[in-house]
Amino acid sequence: MRVLVSGGAGYIGSHTVLALVEAGHDVVVVDDFSNSKPTVIARLESLSGVHVPVHAFDLTDVDKTNALFAVEEIDAVIHFAGLKAVGESVRRPLDYYRTNLDSTFALLEAMRRHDVTRLVFSSSATVYGERAPVPYIEEFDQLASSSPYGRSKVMNEQVLTDVTLATPGQRVALLRYFNPVGAHPSGRIGEDPQGIPNNLMPFIAQVAVGRRERLQVFGGDYPTADGTAERDYLHVMDLAEGHVAALEHLDAMPERVRAFNLGTGTGTSVLQLFRAFERAVGRELPYEIVGRRAGDLPAFWADATRAHEELGWRATRTIDDMCADTWRWQSQNPEGYPDGE
Ligand code: UD1
């Protein structure tokens, strides 16, 4: 298939581009580089050995999105592009709703006009909200979320469901990611957050490389084995392969709209991940336990049975793989991607 990857220069998008090429697909990237660097494309080309065509514009532009579908032959879309910082979404909700919804509207419109029926959407475990029982299963239908970012994902799932069911032949896989971490084993591409990282793994990696003084562990009094919060971390290459599996399964999907959890099915605590990272680096790292972060849940992880049974996909990389690959990326690129090379 010739696959349009929106947000293909971003963290998960770039790893998925490699997995798609590896599986024999052609890729076209659309990205406005608002939260990524063009350097990643050159690295994708050298790693994959193929030319990666890139269209640099903002997908909320309906005319440009339509024009893209007119010039490129597209068989399927994987839609990653969007804003994703939870805290920022609380301060700038309108930007989040507008960007994350308008881009989907523009894509759906262009797909309808150009008769493209396959879509894989980048959703999040955050759609289960605060009251869902763990482990999360896809049948849970009281979708809710505690932030504008999360609610933009819930709304996207609803829009995609309604439009898909009203569009003959269209199919969508809603992929609910748990906590993606790690990097491509080459160390050439990885997660490159701008400013102070919000998420745990990039923060630990920046402590290890000397860019941050110490990790602050948010909460040591949760009702978990070691008192720190538990999440279902999964390797970004497993996640990327999950997209390929979903894409290839779309045409055979009995339901035209289907949600899939992509996680390992196991929880790991903040301190367990931190200790695993110390093992990868080979030395102790500084940390302190501080108060809980507002809005955090004590523990959640995926029931990943459906993805295994229906997509034939399962996460195979371990926590130690995730840490070793993150460390390779971070130590080879201490400041992230360069502006040019
Ligand atoms: C967060 C978002 C989630 C989003 C996901 C995207 C919140 C409440 N949730 O998930 O909606 O889809 O990012 O990647 O923001 N931690 C520390 N110290 C740090 C950073 C994190 O102790 O400096 C802890 C957190 O308290 C949490 C765990 O590490 O217990 C994981 O945090 P994080 O990586 O931010 O992911 P989530 O909060 O699970």
3D architecture notes:
- The chain is an alpha/beta fold.
- The protein has a domain at 2-181 and 234-264 and 306-315: Rossmann fold (3-Layer(aba) Sandwich), CATH 3.40.50.720.
- Helix content is 39%, strand content 16%.
- The two termini are 31 Å apart.
- The model has no long low-confidence stretch (mean pLDDT 97).
- Uridine-diphosphate-N-acetylglucosamine binds next to helix 7 and strand 8.
Entry summary:
It contains 11 helices and 13 strands. The protein is an alpha/beta fold and 341 residues long.
Structural class by SSE content: alpha/beta
Q: What is the CATH homologous superfamily assignment of the domain at 2-181 and 234-264 and 306-315?
A: NAD(P)-binding Rossmann-like Domain
Helix content: 25-40%
Q: Which consecutive residue ranges, at least 5 long each, have pLDDT under 50?
A: none
H/E element sequence? EHEHEHEHHEHEEHEEEHEEHEHH
DSSP, total strands: 13
Based on the structure given, which CATH architecture of the domain at 2-181 and 234-264 and 306-315 is correct? 3-Layer(aba) Sandwich
Count of separate DSSP helical elements = 11
Question: What does the largest sheet look like?
Answer: 7 strands, parallel
Ligands in the model, by name, code or SMILES, are: uridine-diphosphate-N-acetylglucosamine
Topology:
Blueprint: E1 2-6, H1 11-22, E2 26-30, H2 39-48, E3 54-55, H3 62-71, E4 76-79, H4 86-91, H5 93-113, E5 118-124, H6 148-165, E6 171-177, E7 179-181, H7 200-208, E8 215-218, E9 230-231, E10 233-235, H8 236-249, E11 257-262, E12 268-269, H9 270-281, E13 287-290, H10 305-311, H11 319-332
Parallel strand pairs: 1-2, 1-4, 2-3, 4-5, 5-6, 6-11, 7-10, 8-13
Antiparallel strand pairs: 9-12
Residues 86, 124, 126, 150, 179, 198-200, 203, 215-218, 229, 231, 270, 293, 295-296 line the site of uridine-diphosphate-N-acetylglucosamine.
